[in-house]
Amino acid sequence: MITVRELIQVGGFAKNAVLAGEEFLDRELLGVTSFDSPDGHRWLRPGEFVLTTGFPFLTQKDSCEEGLTRLIDELVETGTPGLAIKLGRYIESLPPAVLAHAQNRQMPILSFPMEKAWSDVIVPVVQYINDKQRIELNRTHAIYERFHRHLTAGDPVSKLAELLHDLLQAPVSIQVPGCKWKWESPPEAFPADSEIGQKFGQTASRHLGMHPLAKSANGYPIRWLLHEQKVQGAIVVGQMDRELHAWEKVAIEQSAALLSLEMERMRSVAETYQRFRNDFLQLLLGGETHAQDVLTRKADEVGWKLADHYTVVVMGVSPHERTGIENWTENHGLLETLRPLLSSLDLAILFGLDQHNRVVLLVPTAAETAEAVGSMRQVLEAVRSFAWQQPVFVGLGRFHSGRAGIVQSYREAQISFRTALRGSSASAAANTVVVDFHDLGLERILFAEQPGTEASSLAREYLGRIREYDREKNGQLLQTLQVFLQADGNHAEAAAQLFVHKNTIKYRLALIRELSGLNPENGHDQLLLRIAMTVQSIGYPQAEAGIMAKVRRRGNLHG
């Protein structure tokens, strides 16, 4: 194809030949034809530039102006890139209204030289098009040869940026965040660009799926890399503000095909690895005792490096806890969507499916420090920023040190996840429901798999420091708490039973609040403290019926 601008040069038109549509001379044409019949436009093909004397429009019933205006509309509908009229033979000049209409319809109009024959333009233009197509074919063949040599030499995909740079003579950047690919040739030729990061992992529009070669925000050619309509990365060609030649598009498409094949190979390997990784996760989550060297060796076998401490996250997409193939299919799809997102983070996260077919993430955590909080925030931001097609439920456990801490954090994450499923104490961001175990109270027991174990854990957690304080300082905080709860929160009655001043009761309650993190004067916290005190006093097995009755009554109020 050539442009109208090229046709003016090849066809020998004068520099002042453009009568209208000068801004649209870069429209492309496939050939040149002529007609001098009133209905000649009916046999035009899209892309054919038209030559005419304008004679038919003098013999029409309509005026010349009306005929030419109608012709312009019909040519635009046909897809004609431009029109040349031989002025002086039948039409001396074009009316201003016709030129204005052509400008509005973006139709270039040229003045055809009186001394030229149609063939003086058609022949050299067709020759020029044929020569150009021959050059394009030769260059395309050379492109295929270069890529054939790339493949037979066994060169890695990381060399594609260098190869494309050499072929296109323009800077090239290849970025696939999920594979941690970022190759540029020449190095550092591109400024930081967030466009790929913003679209990464998102569902491509229908238009983008059909036309992955587009323009970036800064006007450069960008070839989006897609998998199952999800954006995986892109090839960007810099410093090129013109349209790409056909052979250049071939080079970019060849690169995209090789990158997609390599990504597919990596996905297949990852899925095979994942089955073994899921088994290894069960070892960590189940709390089975294994020597450190055994765990390290098993981690190496599945391509993982073990950290000292982890915080656990449980995720799922089903609004109901289910087992079976449906649950596996949904959550396996979630895992595959998460894989490139998690891999793009600078965190060695272990992830897979647990025995309930829920997605589990083990986030490396140094300790309960700002760095650890930052790691978890990175994970949550990645999850929340994604445009999920259905609600995603997330439960967070707390930090517990060592291998045993993984089991505790996992137990907490499961409780948080069940709470998220039921929407209790859940904070929703877009289509993501996240519940942190730190924020749970009564739900800890309501949604625990083993309420007795969780009640005992709750008692140790809330009363442990109070008991230690009493032992070290010979204090009476536990006794004060028990009496205060029995008095239904009445300060004066509790003070009378303990033979102390009411202000002493208030002072001791402030200490209890500081040590336990619960406020004995708050109705919700009172219930938790009553459960904890019951477990503390007579043990869970004996108090089970009474505690669970209280819990269920409170749960009914929540529901």
UniProtKB/TrEMBL annotation:
InterPro entries: CdaR-like_regulators, CdaR_GGDEF, PucR_C-HTH_dom, PucR_C-HTH_sf, PucR_dom. Belongs to the CdaR family. It comes from Brevibacillus agri. Residues 291-415 form the CdaR GGDEF-like domain. Gene3D superfamilies: PucR C-terminal helix-turn-helix domain. Residues 7-129 form the Purine catabolism PurC-like domain. Pfam families: GGDEF_2, HTH_30, PucR. This is PucR family transcriptional regulator. Residues 477-534 form the PucR C-terminal helix-turn-helix domain. Coiled coil: none annotated.
